[in-house]
Write a structure and sequence with these properties.
The protein is 37% helix and 18% strand. Strands 4-3-2-1-5-6-7 form a seven-stranded parallel β-sheet, with helices on both faces. By secondary structure, it is α/β, with parallel strands linked by helices. The two termini are 19 Å apart. It contains five helices and seven strands, in the order E-H-E-H-E-E-H-E-H-E-E-H.
């Protein structure tokens, strides 16, 4: 049995200040719960969530679209260059035990769709309203659902 679980956080490669703060708070909570963070490894939501996790002692994985580890944001511990472009979105989802979605564009939408196809739990703080995802309005609500879904007290 695996002792450590992976949470993928998905969202835009650019984000508002408000979304960035939410992402950092989610990263912080993932680290404090002893979970590993996975994301796309670049900027925007990905950088903010990785920063939150890193600053709180967490481990971060960046699954990169390109061929170069150096493309990862500075808060990524393990950079995985895939050379797959947007197809890497499937890997971001597949590695996760649970997905938290923040606002993003069509790449984020594709990740939510892949997650639901794979019967993964999606906690949805995004701009997309999708049947099958758990819709929440706040970071606190998202973390509460995360703990409940993974049976963390």
């Amino acid at each position: 049995m695996l002792k450590t679980r992976v949470i993928s956080v998905i969202g835009g490669s650019r984000c508002t200040t408000e979304t960035g703060k939410a992402a950092q708070e989610i990263g912080k909570n993932i680290a404090k719960l002893g979970l590993i963070l996975a994301c796309g490894g670049l900027g925007g939501v990905m950088e903010a969530v990785a920063k939150g996790a890193k600053e709180n002692g967490g481990t971060t994985i960046g699954i990169l679209p390109g061929d170069n580890k150096k493309d990862a944001n500075p808060y990524i511990d393990i950079a995985i260059p895939t050379g797959l472009g947007l197809a890497r979105n499937t890997l971001v989802v597949r590695v996760a035990d649970l997905i938290i979605a923040l606002p993003g564009e069509y790449g984020t939408l594709s990740e939510i769709s892949f997650a639901l196809i794979l019967n993964k739990i999606v906690i949805n703080l995004s701009n997309w309203d999708i049947e099958g995802a758990i819709r929440v309005k706040t970071v606190d609500e998202a973390i509460k659902h995360l703990g409940k879904a993974l049976r963390i007290k």
